[in-house]
Amino acid sequence: MIRFHAPKKKYYKGESFASKIVVRTLFIRDAIGHLKAILNDNPPTSELHISTLQRKRNSQRNKTAAMAQTSALPIEISFPLPKSPDTRIYLRLTIQSTSLLLFLTTALNGDQSAVPLGSLVYAIPDRMNAGQALSTPLHTSEPTLEFTTRLAKLLARRTGKPAYVGNSISFASAGMGGTVEEEMEGFKKVVEVVMGKLGTGERVVNGT
């Protein structure tokens, strides 16, 4: 704590009141000048702390905004359906900082007709049981529900993020009309492509 002591001055009888005012004014001026010099050399800790926090918050805000702008751009690609070169799987993947949004469908080369909506499933990592995921269907279509649920749970489990998966893939044009083996090959291919875009590059073993 800084203390300032007024100069001891003995006022003799008959000294004017104006002289006393001048002395006090000079004292106050010197004290203020001394205090300013101290603050300029050593700013208060609270000011430093507030300034540091503000810079950190601004930096984090800028990073978050940049990440949101980058991650909000969807990735759109297509690739042949395994064992059916005339049919392609069309994939639209949106990677957010807190979730994934994936839509899948198939179409014959050159076919631009509308396709059914298919199934939409929401899945989240199971925090109480590591390595597992919980899911709930938001819209169901029996031919695609199992495939969609399995894919949503796998993505949620591997990425640790909630995943929304909409799927209307049809294996009717596959070589054998959509057997279990053909669906499994299609499933593995989709996971391989998506994980590649997520930067993990993990392989699928038995659909897990």
Describe the overall structure.
A hairpin with a 4-residue loop joins strand 2 and strand 3. The longest helix is centred in the first third of the chain and has 27 residues. With 208 residues, this protein is of the alpha+beta class. The two termini are 67 Å apart. It has 4 helices and 6 strands. The model has no long low-confidence stretch (mean pLDDT 77). It has a 6-stranded mixed sheet with strand order 1-2-3-6-4-5, with helices on one face. It has 2 domains: 54 residues; 127 residues, Ribosomal Protein S5, domain 2.
Key descriptive features of the protein:
Ribosomal Protein S5, domain 2, 4 helices, alpha+beta, elongated, 43% helix, 208 residues, 6-stranded mixed sheet
In short:
The chain has 208 residues and is α+β, with helices and mostly antiparallel strands. The protein is 43% helix and 23% strand.
| CATH architecture grouping of the largest domain | 2-Layer Sandwich
Just give the CATH class of the largest domain: Alpha Beta
DSSP, total strands: 6
Distance between the termini: 67 Å
| Major beta sheet, strand line-up | 1-2-3-6-4-5
Succession of helices and strands: HHEEEEEHEH
- Overall form: elongated
Proportion of residues in β-strands: 15-25%
List the helices and strands and how they pair.
Layout: H1 17-41, H2 45-71, E1 75-81, E2 84-95, E3 100-108, E4 119-125, E5 133-139, H3 142-159, E6 163-168, H4 180-198
Parallel strand pairs: 3-6
Antiparallel strand pairs: 1-2, 2-3, 4-5, 4-6
